[in-house]
Amino acid sequence: MRTMFFNTLVLETIDRCNARCAMCYQAAGPRGSDIRGDGHLSLDVVKRVIDEAADLPELTGDRVHVSGGESFLNYQEMLAIFHHARSAGFGHVGATTNAFWALDDAVAERKCGELAAAGVTYFEVSIDFWHLPYVSVERVRCLLRAMRRTGLRATLRTLSSRTHHLPELLQTFQEHELLQVVIGNGRVQPVGRGALTIPPSEIYYGNGVEGSCDQQLNLTITPNGNVYPCCAGADMTESLSSGNVHNETLADIVLTMRTDQLIRQIIHRGTGELIPVIQQLGYGDRLLDRYSGICHLCWDVFKDNELAAALREHYQNEQFEMLANLVAAAMDAPHTGGPDAPDPDSVPELSSVDAAE
Amino acid sequence: MPLFGGHRSYFGAVGLFLGNGSTASWQIPVEKACEYLDRMGEFQASSAATELACLPIPTGLYVSGAEPFAQIDDLERLLDCALRNRMLAELVTTVSWVDSQGTANSVIERFAKKVHLLTVVTSQADSERYGLARLEHLLGALREFDINTSIRCSIGPGEPFPREVLALEVVNCDTSVIRVEPRAGASADGAEWPAGYLLPAPPRYARCAELMGFVIVPGGDVYPCSSGIGFSQLRLGNIEAEPIESVVRRTMADAALRKLHDKGPYYLYELCSESADSARLAAGYVSACQFHRHVLADPKLAAVAASANTINPVAGIG
Predict the structure, then answer these.
(1) Contact A26, A35 (CB under 8 A)
(2) Nearest chain B residue to A187, by CA
């Protein structure tokens, strides 16, 4: 039985962003998300979620990560969240930001000092070709300089496409400003607003949809309170939500997630395995000709509520059928177990078994 | 429930240091390396949900030092052992062994299901010696077989930023983690680094937690980080001489190491700058690590630090 572990608690506290980048997978902007609306997790709820997460055995990582939208639109709230996360025992506490608040060196250094004192240990700073119309490189440079002097670890989150490579983006940085900065570069994805605005000719499609994501899970709470196993596109769907923190405890929601056969399928076997099932269910015409990876496929399939419902029904039926076969085999088998008893290693994953772990 | 931070881990990973020299052969027999990993695996299993649980689940194995691909068959044994012990292996390599795209593909294919992350270390000297083709071959193979990729470029004072590496198609076409860092040991006084780059003091909040591991070196000595290897003051013990459990127990109870873990070495800077030996501090530092190494390597500054009971007390063990 494979277990579901999460590396990080991700708190997407707000849908709003001061920028409205063309590639944004969350489709965020000054009025909220084009897809998700204008949600905001209240500080009280965030604190409760952090406290509940601190006791979750499935959260094996030591990290709380805050993102948005642009979560620094509420600076005082961020200070309170970081302080609470550190007080709850999380060691790695940080956020993604576009650095709009690093107005100059003095402001950036003062705020980095306040944030570090509150418990922040790192920031991931977003910058790419599509951010440039909204946030100046100078503010990113100010923030990087302040982080280095303060001792906060810096990751520059960049995106590439076929015509926009890293040197174009980094040419305005002085060389030594990038020393000791981790550059985490990814491919721009046709997900969220990017699906509407990024031409396919710009996208690196990569090796297709092989592989799974079970080593890369992050327990994610969205601004409307929904809970997901990742923050890479699934969080922009309704159909993959396992519950809402306004109505249930995080532990109950994680139990629901762990016992959801559809989510287990996606996580452990990979979304690529869904393609023949989708075709078998008669929805093959809704598949795209190609996907840039498993996250693109996951978002594209599960943003379609009708297709998602059909897949969920399929896997629920499969689960019931397996359970019925298991019960029948147990009823038929001699009490001592015998040649007809099911081999435990061949028994499919069942929610009841998982729940009892 | 563990005493030391709930289910949070004290160490980020298990480190296995194969020996000095990034392109050299291993200085540890593979049998011994596997024995260490098996013992770590046993310790992990027996300490789970106890006060000694100190490593994340799943546990990373960071293999660095000598060139892992210099001994292909040994590497396979080592990685099989890591898998048996449920460790996710990260290998640190160079392009020294990559003589063609074919070599890169065949070697990487062999290890595709056994390596979680491969970090390629390069430098200006490597670029001059090998050109960029070897790096492109290796990265191309990693893309082909879907292995997570990280690139580390070390540069010294006056050396150019490696923009040509950042421009490679094979870097831009998929997820890459790139870190450009000052080469260890380069220019302690910092005269050649660009103006404004050196920090007058180590950063106040640069804590060590993210860099800490349970790093085992040939011979069984254990250190809390790769940068600390060789500094006797940081030696945590020796797993040839005592059980892993006792090394971990002593380490996690060590207040000075805990302070480095949680807050970093800035407090040592405060101590040293207020001491009679403050003139021995450098004019500037590139990082908190460089500052810490400077203090540990300077007998008088090390004595200042030791006088405040800031050095891990395992002298005499092993």
Answers:
(1) yes
(2) B174
Chain A residues within 8 A of B169 when measuring between CB atoms? 165
List beta partners, residue B317.
none
Residue of B nearest to A189 (CA): B174
List the single residue in B8, B88, B163 with the smallest CB-CB distance to A89.
Answer: B8
C-alpha B96/C-alpha B134 separation (Å) is: 8
Radius of gyration of chain B (CA): 20
Tens-digit pLDDT profile for residues A65-94: 999 999 999 999 999 999 999 999 998 999
Confidence of residue B156 (pLDDT cuts 50, 70, 90): confident
Q: Cβ separation of B163 and A62 shorter than 8 Å?
A: no
ipTM of the complex: 0.90
Interchain CB distance below 8 Å, B204 and A116: yes
Q: How far apart are the first and last CA of chain B?
A: 31
- For residue B69, give the DSSP letter: G
Higher pLDDT, A339 or B46: B46
Cα torsion through A130, B175, B9, A253, rounded to 10: 70
- At residue B204, φ and ψ (nearest 5 deg) are -60, -35
Please report, as a single letter, which amino acid is at residue A41.
L
Q: Residue B56 is encoded by which pair of tokens?
A: 């994340």
Distance from CA of A207 to the nearest CA of B (A): 8
Cβ-based contacts of A82 with chain B (< 8 Å): none
Q: For residue B209, which residues of chain A lie inside 8 Å, CB to CB?
A: 91-92, 121
Write down the pTM of the prediction.
0.90
- Burial (Cβ within 10 Å: 0-12, 13-18, ≥19) of residue B312: buried
According to the model, what pLDDT value does residue B3 have?
32
Residue A227: φ, ψ to 5°: -125, 135
